[in-house]
Amino acid sequence: PFILLFFLYLIACIVSNRHYKRWSYLRIFYWALGILCMATIAVGPLAKSVHKDFTAHMFGHLLLGMVAPLLILLSAPMTLFLRTLRVKQARFITKMLKSFPLRVICDPLIASLLNVGGLWLLYTTNLYSQMHQNILLYLFIHLHVFIAGYVYTAAFIYIDPIPHRTSYMYRAIIMIISMASHGVLSKYLYAHPPYGVTTTQAEIGGMIMYYGGDIVDIILIYIFCLQWYKSTKVKSNLVKQVNI
């Protein structure tokens, strides 16, 4: 499925390039790298280790829930998808994106609750141990981790078309709170290992979650602040033109 996703993106690029400006090779690179991060959780040595090693699991959490969503978002898949559709079909998809349920889910506050709140539920209950005993629960949780991570990232930095935009100040406040909550959870895991996890693995896993999460957060903050700066600069130029 990961190889299929990669080639579907390439096919979409070919179709899009026939009618519009050539699609960025950098975005293709982001998509490939994001798919690779997702694939490491399903195939390879890391995928085998996550079942019995909490340290490996936490590496997987970073790749699937933070790194992959950011890379996939930077590849602008929705923009590319809309470029491959006919006008009527694109309008239908755009109308769906403007629906009330998506407006609620894509709100930074709700997206943060789904993302960070889901992690608190996973690691502070028996859900973590149960997921390794039930394959359907295991798949569902991993799917949730990625989707929640993607929606969370898309709620703060606007790469694809976003019908329901919120102010930079509102997003900044929610971002600070959500990132702090993620950091508190990592410290909590350091002192309170999940059921079935040794103290040593919990300490290493907590540090991976804390410092690894910080690295991704810094990139997210940089992109967010850059977009805010550009937006302010554009508004400032418009004001100058009006005054002139």
Percentage of residues in strands: under 5%
Supply the number of helical segments.
12
Q: Give the helix proportion (percent range).
A: over 70%
Q: How many whole angstroms does the radius of gyration measure?
A: 20 Å
Order of helices and strands: HHHHHHHHHHHH
The description of the largest β-sheet is: none
* Low-pLDDT regions: none
Mean pLDDT across the residues is: 88
Distance between the termini: 56 Å
Number of strands: 0
Helix/strand-derived category reads mainly alpha
The outline comes out as globular
General description of the model:
This protein is mainly alpha-helical and 244 residues long. Helix content is 80%, strand content 0%. It has 12 helices and no strands. The protein has helices spanning 2-17, 25-39, 45-49, 54-74, 77-84, 87-97, 100-105, 108-123, 127-131, 135-156, 168-191, 199-243. The mean pLDDT is 88.
Which characteristics define this entry?
244 residues, mainly alpha, 12 helices, 0% strand, globular
SSE map:
Layout: H1 2-17, H2 25-39, H3 45-49, H4 54-74, H5 77-84, H6 87-97, H7 100-105, H8 108-123, H9 127-131, H10 135-156, H11 168-191, H12 199-243
Structure summary:
By secondary structure, the chain is an all-alpha fold.
